[in-house]
Structure formats: structure tokens, C-alpha cells
Amino acid sequence: MSDTILKQREIPLIIFAVSVLIPILGYHLDVSLLDVTVDTFVEWGAYAANFAFFVGLISLYRSQMRNVTRRTPGQWQYSILTIGIVSLMVVVGFVYSPGFDWLTFNVFFPSQQAMVAYMGFQTIIIIYIGFRVKDLGSALFTLAFIAVTFTYMSFLESYSPIFQLFGNWVNSVPNMAGQRGLLVGIGIGLFSVVIRTILGYERTFMAGAEE
Amino acid sequence: MGLLQDFYKGKGDWRILFVMTFIVLLFPYLVPLGIPVPISQSTRDFKSVLDNIPSGGTVMIDFEGTPASWANLGALTVAVSNVCFERDINIIYLTFAMEAPDVHTRIVENTKLYDTLVYGEDYMNVGYVPGVETGMASWAADTRFISIDHHGNDVASLPIMKDIHTMGDLDAVIFVSGTTPDPWFRQFGPYNVPLLSGAQGGLVPIIQPYYQSGQLAAYLDDVKGAAELEQLSGIPGLALSKMDQVNLLYIFAVLLIIMGNLGRIMGKEE
What we know:
Chain A has 211 residues and is mostly helical.
């Protein structure tokens, strides 16, 4: 009997719907007990996020160990490296804080910056290949890109504001219109997802859920 | 022109472009050009909000970048921190991004008045607040939600936190981010605290509707905005030193587009 109850799909749906409904009601209703409940829910969410990070770490170890044990071609060597580096940072972080700081500032920081620098050079290739005028659409796209780029050239602005007129218009009119439309669309979409969740129609968060 | 055709057909050596890019970036270091930096309205508004904060006030800087974004967002945050410390405004640094807490340390170390600052009085580093929007909502409702700061100190015992219990007790909130700004407006907007943004260049079109509507008090446009702030406040720093490179790089990008299309035209003529 208890197994049957626990396996009911409605239980996680109810938990999810209540979790969504309580903060919404707390926002609109001025009830002190509801406020305390909402604050507690929100705090629990932050604590759960920490556990989610812990679960992610375990998943990382599992997936990388799978590559090592199966000797996945072209991958298993990097998996050993990944496991080693993650383990080193975790252990050093707990055991020797100055060592963790040293690794962060002298290994992690330069590595990240080198990766971004590499992407910068790739962006140069993309700019060279991507902005080729083949038709009206690509011509307008290229023109808009150049115009907006002019707005970032401060020396042009110091000579005359005329260079940035078109770029500022692109930012202020078509871009603004598009962004506002996008924000409205996102808001409506979020609203519909919340309603579907509360009513139990949204089940994608449930593993193996059937419509 | 043969070279352009080769690149158009995909046969060109991309290392030539890489070397040209490297020269463009290196040249201003060797020969500083001192390209003028006019001040935009959004930067003036940003400075104006900071100027209206009384001496001894407290702001929160939420740096959402990573070490990879040190060159632009890091320089921007240093510029803002310099203005705040110069005006005796206290700063609470925190982040909802895991990699950022140690960047806060580097930001403070790069400020002009670093040697005179006292941790816990002039600034503090809350560190990483987990949960993104739930973390934002929790910290905004109760700033002691994170009870231990990034350096292991009891948050409630620090002098800077004496009168700061919720987000509403702050004089301004500055979020420096390379991602969509919606969560900050959703969670921090209800507290009626001036929201300021340091935005990565590609995000400026996204935050402009919020600036136009008044939800965002002001913003700084990536390195350019940071350089403008440094110029406006009279505290030159990392951002102003990069503006020569930024200008030359954008000129180079426009020339690349022209070269790419020339190569295509030459290729078609064959």
C-alpha cells in the first residue's frame, strides 16, 4: 500500500505545484505566516543548490571514470587529467587554503584568460568569413554591424557625432523594438509554463514522464 | 589581391590574420596613441548616482564575471570601486557565480586606495551565494543569510554590516555581468534601491529597454564605459589604458569585413 502511494506520479506534481504557488501567493497576499513560509522556501532553494553542486561533482567523477575504465579512444587520457585536477583542487581547498589561492591565481586565472584569448583569434576568422554581402539581408546585417561598431570607436565620436548617428538609431529603434518584443514573449511564455506546472500539465521535470 | 582570393577560397593561411591581430593589439602598448574618450550619457548618469550617495554609504557590487572576463568586466569593476572608495563609500562584494569570489580579491588589490582600506569596515567579500535567483532572493531578504564571509569571518560581526539587514538598507546595487540581466530586476527590483549595471558589450542592447524604462538607473558599456568613468572621475586605470587597443581593434574588424568582401568579389571575377 505505502509503495503504491509513494509511486504515484501525482505526488511530485503536487510538491512542484505547491512550491511554485506559495511564493506567488506570498508576493500578492500580505499574510505574515505566508511570508515566513516563502522566506523558508527560498532559503531551502539556496541550500538545495549546494547539494545540486555536490551531485554535479559526483556525476563528473562518474562520467570521467567511465571513460578511463572503458579506455575511450582519444578521451581517457584527458579524463585522468580532469579527475586529477578536480581532486587536487578539492583536497587542497579543504586542507591548505593558501595553496588553493596560489592554484587559483597562478593556474586557474591564466588558463581561463588564455582560453578567452584563443577565442578572440577565432572571432577574427568569423568576422572575416561571416560578413560577406551576398544579398539584401546580408548587406543590411553587415551595414548594421559596421554602424554599431562605429559607436564603439570613441575617436570617431570626438571628431563628429555624425559617424554614430546610424549606429545609435540601430540600437535605439529596431534593436529596442526587438528586445521589448522578446521580453514580452519571454514573460508570456514563463506565465504559461507556471500555469501548466500548477495545474499538473508540465511534467518534463519528471524522469520517464508520459504525456 | 591574390592573397584575398586565397582567403576567400579557404586556402589562405589564417596565421597571417593572427599576426596582424597581434600587431594591432601590441602597437598601442609600444606607441600610446591617447585616443580621446567622449563621455556618454549613461556613464554620466552612473557617476551621478554614485555622487548622490552620501559619504559612509554602502553599495553592493555583484561581480558575475570569471577570471576570463578580467580584461573587460574586471577593469570595469576596478573603475567603479575606485570611484566608491574615493568618495568613502563602503562596498559589499558578492557573487552568484562560483568562480568570481577570488576575482573580488584581485579587484580590491587593484584599486588606488587599497593600502588604506580596512577589511570589514571599508569593504567585505561575502563570496559565493548559491542558488542564483533563489540565492538572490534570500540574500536580498536577509543579508545575514550567508553567515560566514569568503574569508571565514562572521558576517554579523563586521562593522560594514552593522546597519545592513536587507537589500533595502543599501544605497545602490551594482551588478557586473556577461549574462542576461532579468534575474536582477526580478529579485532586486522590489527593494527600490538604485540598480546600476556594468554590462559586457554584447549585452548593452538587451539592457537598454530597462534603462529607457527607468528600472535601470544607469549602466557602463563594457571597457568603453569604464574608461569614460575613469576619465569623468579623474582616476585613470586599467580601462583607459585599453581604449587605444579597443579603437584599433574595431578599425581592424571593419577593414577585415571590407577585405573579406573584396576577396569574394575577386573570386567571383575569376
